[in-house]
Design goal:
The structure holds 2 protein chains of 2 kinds. Chain A has 10 helices and 14 strands. In chain A, helix 4 runs antiparallel to helix 5. Chain B has 2 domains: about 80 residues, Winged helix-like DNA-binding domain superfamily/Winged helix DNA-binding domain (Arc Repressor Mutant, subunit A), CATH 1.10.10; about 40 residues. Chain B has a two-stranded antiparallel sheet. Classes of the chains: A alpha/beta, B mainly alpha.
């Protein structure tokens, strides 16, 4: 089962976000290339991609700040580009570099923004400011990047959104604040049923709290799967130079391969559920290695060009 | 039992729900968690380790279906009565099977003779930690 699988079999009301075949170009360069995925209620989807992969562009399209060239995004049952004010109060978005209302003090900004949200949680707001050592009378423009990011997170979490869209939310946070933030997100998803989409390149954050993970690479969505399944259904096969000769065709379930400097090969295999790995993969000279998320991400995104096959 | 006693390594190749389930199985098999012992709540474990509560629920659910844990009304999860007792040596050994398989596989890949691996293992087992 995959909470990000194509709906159609499942009622769309089980999803808080559905995007279909999104394309976007900047100056003729493809930034998003046919991106489709969905987020089920209560799911925490981690979007992993290198710098320039298109994560920020995708998120801006999803919150209606940018128009896609083609394709559609539906957020909380409304088209992203024409969301009603009511739907907007149920959506929380934190951009990578929050800069709005920078002339205000922390307290004034939070009170002002809070007045637009029917479910604004003042108690959470004050507790968080205290816990994160932020002076309410400080002007936003004077805050450090880490403090500014913390205020932006307090703002969005105090509004008690049903869907959170966070662009690199933890990049400027110190380890303690980051752990604190991850805990908050994890518990909200588990208890309040808050759905979350967050982009990051801090892979271990994603491994902690994400229920699902997507790889975005050069504008394409390469992988879209449940977090636990991912580790159980992918493996790296290290093949010696001698054994590589016998593997001139793709193996069943092969999704990536590259040649190593020593003449051997690395092959990434995937399987459905926990079915056995193909017999050809267990040939002598090949070793299996379980992979964590970072290994898999690098295997899939760090080897541009065509897969290499020995002749 | 306290949430802190679980060791969670998010960047391990082993999914977190399996890490939790495996540690609890060992604690129960060895009798260190005795029948009736309370488990920390899902919220507590998730909060302490900043992990997704669904992951913790999945681990607990798996052990519940194996009969090792049971849900008590108003008390949360506790170690189940019958099978919670320290198990026979055979059953406990069964818990180690995946690690033994892995060790055997790696030893073969390294071309190590069984004797030298067993000697080293014996030293490790007989050394007090």
């Amino acid at each position: 089962m995959n909470a990000t699988s194509a709906p159609g079999t499942i009622e769309s009301r089980d999803f808080v976000l559905i995007c279909r075949n999104i394309h976007k170009r900047f100056d003729g360069r493809k930034v998003l290339d046919d991106v489709s995925f969905s987020i089920a209620k209560g799911a925490v989807l981690g979007l992993l991609g290198r710098n320039g992969a298109g994560k920020t562009t995708l998120m801006r399209i999803l919150v209606g700040l940018l128009m896609p060239e083609s394709g559609s995004a539906t957020v909380l049952d409304e088209p992203a580009l024409r969301m009603s004010d009511a739907a907007k109060t149920r959506l929380g978005y934190v951009p990578q570099k929050p800069e709005s209302l920078n002339w205000m003090t922390v307290e004034n900004m939070l009170q002002f923004v809070g007045s637009f949200y029917p479910r604004w949680d003042s108690e959470y707001m004050w507790n968080s400011l205290m816990r994160w050592n932020i002076s309410p009378s400080q002007r936003l423009a004077k805050l450090s990047p880490g403090e500014r990011q913390r205020v932006a997170l307090i703002r969005v979490l105090a509004s008690c959104p049903e869907l959170l869209i966070l662009d690199e939310p933890a990049s400027a946070l110190d380890p303690v604040a980051r752990r604190d933030f991850l805990r908050e997100i994890a518990l909200r998803a588990g208890e309040a049923g808050t759905s979350v989409l967050f982009s990051t390149h801090i892979v271990s954050d994603l491994e902690r709290i994400a229920s699902h993970v997507c790889f975005l690479h050069e504008g394409k969505l390469l992988l879209d799967t449940a977090m636990d399944d991912l580790k159980e259904t992918h493996v790296r096969l290290s093949v010696s130079r001698e054994a590589a000769v016998g593997l001139s065709k793709p193996l069943p379930g092969e999704i990536a391969r590259h040649r190593r400097p020593d003449g051997g090969m690395s092959i990434v295999l995937t399987r459905k559920d926990l079915t056995p790995w193909p017999a050809a993969a267990t040939a002598s000279g090949a070793t299996f290695e379980a992979m964590n998320l970072e290994d898999l991400f690098i295997e899939i995104t760090d080897h541009p060009g065509v897969a290499w096959y020995p002749r | 039992m306290e949430s802190d006693e679980l060791l969670i390594q998010p960047s391990s190749a082993e999914p977190i729900y399996r890490q939790i389930a495996q540690q609890l199985r060992r604690l129960i098999a060895s009798g260190r968690l005795s029948p009736g012992a309370d488990l920390p709540s899902v919220r507590d474990v998730a909060g302490r380790h900043a992990i997704n509560p669904m992951t913790v629920s999945r681990a607990y659910g798996q052990l519940e279906s194996e009969g090792l844990l049971e849900r008590r009304r108003g008390k949360g999860m506790v170690v189940a009565a019958l099978r919670g007792r320290a198990q026979s040596a055979d059953r406990r050994l069964q818990q180690l099977q995946p690690q033994l398989d892995e060790l055997a596989r790696q030893a073969r890949e390294l071309g190590l003779p069984a004797e030298s691996v067993l000697d080293r293992l014996r030293v490790l087992l007989e050394t007090d930690q």
